[in-house]
């Protein structure tokens, strides 16, 4: 369980453990969050891992999991416990390891996740770096797995899904856009070494004001993420420099998402995230063609 939870109930334990008694090895959480909570999950980790490994696990870095003794023993055979993987990267490592090695996976609906929210423009750089680093490392580890997968399929959900209230998350939109603009000024020469001219041209065209016109399209964002994965695989840049240069792009994508969804209902936001996932699935050929 995440240590900052304020919405946990006794039923969570039942929902995370009962599927194990029914033969599942890994239970991921499925809960409702404010539309601007979990931006790393929504914009990067969920679309990417879904496209790579073909399972729709909505919260692959949710922080609250159930797993079998068999899977626990398998985890303990891996030499990761003194590395960065055992920090912010542990959640995606657990999820991906279970999926890629053929363990039986499901989800359980837990209601709302209420915890200490993190404002995207202020608090998430280190988490973004560690999570993306682990995702890219796992792509090397399980290359033979994800290359043969097309599309995605649903993952069974235990529990009854229902609407719940969630706490709002404050976002500083102008600060995010300003950080993107500064990053574009300072890092464009780095991005140009591994991203296409089409992507760079779109990034250069994004306006600083008015923020209502700030849009980073799904197709471009998917190609950006895949370009970073390819650059990490080919070791085109020092890994720390590469991942540091991802932060302003993530902030730009998050700002674009906020601009597009300010007046959207939770259902409409989820539909937009679903559309982004489908773009990642369609763009997977771009990844495979440029991987080697």
Structure characterization notes:
- By secondary structure, the protein is α/β, with parallel strands linked by helices.
- It folds into two domains: 10-158, Spore Coat Polysaccharide Biosynthesis Protein SpsA, Chain A, CATH 3.90.550; 173-291, no CATH class.
- The chain is 55% helix and 8% strand.
- The protein has 14 helices and six strands.
- The protein has helices at residues 10-21, 39-53, 69-76, 90-100, 120-123, 125-141, 143-146, 173-191, 197-205, 218-234, 239-244, 247-261, 266-282, 284-291, and strands at 26-32, 55-56, 66-67, 105-112, 153-154, 157-158.
- The strands form two sheets. The chain has a four-stranded mixed beta sheet. Strands 2-5 form a two-stranded parallel sheet.
- α4 (90-100) packs parallel to α6, α8 packs across α12 (247-261) and α10 (218-234) packs across α13.
What would you say about this model in short?
The protein has 14 helices and 6 strands.
Tell me the series of helices and strands, N- to C-terminal.
Answer: HEHEEHHEHHHEEHHHHHHH
Briefly note the structural class of the backbone.
alpha/beta
The CATH topology of the largest domain turns out to be Spore Coat Polysaccharide Biosynthesis Protein SpsA, Chain A
Which band does the percent of strand residues land in?
Answer: 5-15%
Distance between the termini: 39 Å
Compile the SSE list and pairings.
Elements: H1 10-21, E1 26-32, H2 39-53, E2 55-56, E3 66-67, H3 69-76, H4 90-100, E4 105-112, H5 120-123, H6 125-141, H7 143-146, E5 153-154, E6 157-158, H8 173-191, H9 197-205, H10 218-234, H11 239-244, H12 247-261, H13 266-282, H14 284-291
Parallel strand pairs: 1-4, 2-5, 4-6
Antiparallel strand pairs: 1-3
Helix pairs in contact: 2-6, 2-13, 4-6, 8-12, 10-13, 10-14
């Amino acid at each position: 369980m995440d240590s900052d939870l304020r919405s946990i109930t006794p039923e969570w334990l039942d929902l995370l453990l009962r599927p194990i008694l029914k033969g599942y090895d890994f239970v991921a959480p499925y809960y409702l969050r404010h539309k601007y909570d979990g931006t790393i999950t929504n914009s990067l980790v969920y679309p990417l891992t879904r496209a790579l490994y073909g399972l729709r696990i909505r919260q692959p870095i949710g922080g609250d999991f159930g797993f079998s003794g068999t899977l626990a023993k398998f985890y303990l055979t891996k030499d990761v416990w003194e590395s960065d993987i055992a920090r912010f990267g542990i959640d995606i490592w657990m999820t991906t390891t279970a999926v890629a090695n053929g363990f039986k996976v499901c989800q359980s609906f837990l209601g709302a996740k209420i915890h200490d929210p993190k404002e995207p423009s202020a608090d998430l750089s280190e988490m973004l770096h560690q999570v993306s680093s682990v995702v890219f490392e796992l792509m090397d580890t399980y290359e033979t797995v994800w290359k043969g997968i097309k599309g995605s399929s649903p993952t069974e959900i235990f529990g009854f899904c229902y609407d719940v209230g969630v706490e709002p998350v404050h976002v500083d939109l102008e600060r995010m856009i300003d950080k993107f603009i500064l990053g574009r000024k300072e890092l464009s020469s780095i991005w140009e070494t591994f991203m296409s001219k089409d992507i760079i041209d779109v990034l250069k065209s994004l306006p600083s004001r008015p923020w209502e016109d700030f849009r980073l399209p799904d197709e471009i964002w998917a190609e950006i993420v895949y370009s970073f994965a390819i650059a990490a695989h080919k070791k085109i840049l020092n890994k720390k420099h590469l991942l540091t240069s991802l932060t302003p792009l993530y902030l730009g994508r998050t700002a674009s998402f906020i601009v597009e969804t300010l007046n959207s209902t939770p259902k409409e936001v989820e539909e937009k995230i679903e559309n982004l996932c489908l773009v990642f699935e369609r763009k997977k050929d771009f990844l495979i063609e440029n991987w080697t």
